[in-house]
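Posting this for the archive.
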Amino acid sequence: MNNLEIAEYLIARRKTLAVSQYRLAELSGVSVHTISNLETATGNVTLATLQKVCATMGLSVSVGV
């Protein structure tokens, strides 16, 4: 998946869960700005942060080489 596909997937999952960006940020322990960066495929979000946000939404992250 590329960054835009990840962003679209995260938005869809958050909307399916009926959670606002603000609430997801609270639950994940990250800023709303970070959630926005993830959902717009901008900024420089770490893998650890992506994992934290995904785990909050019941998703997992795997990296293959």
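Residues 29 and 52 are 8 Å apart (CA to CA). The first helix runs from residue 3 to 16.
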